[in-house]
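Why should sequence recovery work at all? Because a backbone constrains its sequence more than one might expect. Tight turns favour small or flexible residues, buried strands favour hydrophobic ones, and helices have their own preferences. The token representation captures these environments compactly. In the example below, the structure is given first.
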């Protein structure tokens, strides 16, 4: 589908079909899926994107929306790329009736609060951003007090709330998708090894819920200090190793760096991925993970990254640099605002418009905002085969009822 064709798409219910470039973000915006499908990009703010002057405006339309990102301080390189992506979205949308007020949050809560105050004072009807959880909380207090909605880019579901929506791929959705597909393929008994980290805390509760919801058996969950999985593997013992292993799937939600220690320890303990399928989240989407023997045949959930290719090509042609994966957050957000402004008039940013249960369809799949703030996403399931990922279950085109 071309960009032009995508923008001419009809409605899903009352929700506009958009040709977007959705994103997988690591904790608080770190990139987790890269330019290829599905090649990775390391987390962090590194980018060669041109750094624009702090603040400024993009577009000349009558509808004002603020973009709050770090253009100085921590994360400034990513913020610059997101500002560039917003400009690209305006260009791709062929000059919509939209004006983006770009505000620098300096990568800090105080800066985010001040940026939000300036955005409201300047007449912004909605605020896009910030990127980091603490900054989202600071900005949301200002924006919500003014009766305006905020669409943030953090992947910390804890900062979501009514009127504070998250445009990001949340790890909870990835957990649900890989567990659902595992059960559908015949896996009935699950074990887990989860690192003692904020990410581990976020996914453990969702894993327990997903296994229970599917009527599967939870054999055991072991937590381990980051970088030291051996004791946890020892405690699991025969539950995950040997021909009589009680689990037929092992959840391993660790980063590529963490898995570089976990996988060899599993192999040493006699773990056989042919008997107990390893499963994970989009943090697996990295060549270092694909090369690990203990994870061959493993499954993980992530977006179909093909849509990012077109965005990356246009971005490189326009700005002369490869965008960080999170740049698509700003591109998506601005494209969505432009489409809603065109389709829904005075109700463009109403809660009922933003939270339509049919959601919005983008290049990387369908997404929607829940009334309480988090988002649902349509994800693909990949299998690691001979050191490379292959889609075994494509991302669905429509989303089922939330929480099912």
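From this structural description, the recovered sequence reads:
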């Amino acid at each position: 589908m071309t960009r032009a064709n995508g923008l001419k798409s009809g409605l899903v219910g009352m929700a506009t079909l958009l040709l977007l470039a959705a994103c997988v973000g690591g904790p608080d915006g770190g990139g987790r899926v890269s330019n290829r499908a599905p090649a990775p990009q390391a987390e962090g703010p590194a980018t060669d994107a041109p750094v624009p002057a702090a603040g400024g405006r993009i577009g000349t339309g009558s509808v004002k929306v603020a973009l709050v990102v770090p253009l100085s301080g921590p994360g400034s390189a990513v913020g610059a790329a997101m500002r560039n992506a917003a400009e690209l979205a305006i260009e791709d949308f062929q000059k919509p009736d939209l004006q983006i007020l770009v505000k620098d949050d300096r990568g800090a809560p105080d800066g985010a609060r001040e940026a939000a105050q300036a955005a409201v004072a300047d007449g912004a009807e909605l605020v896009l951003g910030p990127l980091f959880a603490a900054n989202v909380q600071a900005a949301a207090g200002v924006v919500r007090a003014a009766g305006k909605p905020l669409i943030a880019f953090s992947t910390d579901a804890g900062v979501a709330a009514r009127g504070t929506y998250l445009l990001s791929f949340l790890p909870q959705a990835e957990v649900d998708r890989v567990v659902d597909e595992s059960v559908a393929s015949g896996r009935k008994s699950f074990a887990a090894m989860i690192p003692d980290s904020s990410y581990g805390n976020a996914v453990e509760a969702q894993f327990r819920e997903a296994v229970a919801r599917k009527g599967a058996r939870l054999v055991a969950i072991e937590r381990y200090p980051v970088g030291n999985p051996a004791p946890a593997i020892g405690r699991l013992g025969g539950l995950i190793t040997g021909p009589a292993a009680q689990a037929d799937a092992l959840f391993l939600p660790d980063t590529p760096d963490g898995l570089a220690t976990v996988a060899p320890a599993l192999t040493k303990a006699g773990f056989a991925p042919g008997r107990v399928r390893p499963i994970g989240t989009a943090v697996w989407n990295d060549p270092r993970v694909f090369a690990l023997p203990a994870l061959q045949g493993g499954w993980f959930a992530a977006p179909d990254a093909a849509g990012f290719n077109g965005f990356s090509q246009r971005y490189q042609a326009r700005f002369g640099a490869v965008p960080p994966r999170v740049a698509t957050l700003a591109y998506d957000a601005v494209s969505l605002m432009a489409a809603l402004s065109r389709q829904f008039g005075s109700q463009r940013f109403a809660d009922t418009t933003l939270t339509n249960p049919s959601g919005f369809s983008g290049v990387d799949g369908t997404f929607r905002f829940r009334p309480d703030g988090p988002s649902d996403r349509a994800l693909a399931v990949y299998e690691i085969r001979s050191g490379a990922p292959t889609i075994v279950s494509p991302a669905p085109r429509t989303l089922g009822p939330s929480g099912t």
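A few observations help interpret the result. Residues 171-302+381-393 form a domain with the Rossmann fold fold (CATH 3.40.50.2300).
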